[in-house]
Amino acid sequence: MKSKKLLIFISFFVTLNIASTVYADDLTKRVGFGFGNPYISIKLGLSPKCSIEGRGAFGSGIKVRGGRFYYNFNPQDKAVIYTGGEYSQISFDTKNISGDGSLKYLFVGGEYFITSHLTFNLDIGPIYLSLKEEKTNISSKESAWLYN
Question: What is the pLDDT at residue 75?
Fold first, then answer.
């Protein structure tokens, strides 16, 4: 597994050097599709500085649906720095427990344009998670830092 991660890491930096002439340009009306483990998303540029994104994550008995807002500080550059927020609804129904909740996330991050159709982005920030179990009515509220 470590060798696979190392190969991805090296490939990423080799690709960065090859694609050094690609820039973000105007992000208005630009549509993007995101894939992660285990989520999918669709992102729409409202203007050069603002974007919105719908996300869905689905696992074994867990569903997370929500949206994000991005504010881009330097949309004309190859590496775009952004900040924003996310709100998502959570539902879970596993063998032993079921319920629902919400997730609130404030983040700062960056998006690197590898090619005009492929980007790599990372963000980090505080997250507030609120969950409520259905049968016992027990609730839990937690804060933490999330790296996405």
Answer: 83
**Which runs of E-coded beta strand occur in 1-117?**
31-35, 39-45, 50-59, 62-72, 79-93, 98-115
Torsion of CA 34, 123, 57, 29, to 10 degrees: -40
Nearest to 66 by CA among 102, 31, 92, 34: 102
Q: What is the pTM of this model?
A: 0.77
Measured CA to CA in angstroms, residue 17 lies from 10, 13, 27 at distances of 11, 7, 23
Q: Could you give the CA distance from residue 22 to residue 27 in angstroms, rounded to a whole number?
A: 13
**How does 50-74 read in b/e, with b if 16+ C-beta sit within 10 Å?**
bbebebebeeeeeebebebebebee
Distance CA(110)–CA(79), nearest Å, equals 7
pLDDT digits (tens, 9 = 90+) for 62-78: 999 999 999 999 888 88
Mean pLDDT of 130-139: 89
The label of the residue with tokens 């409520």 reads 132
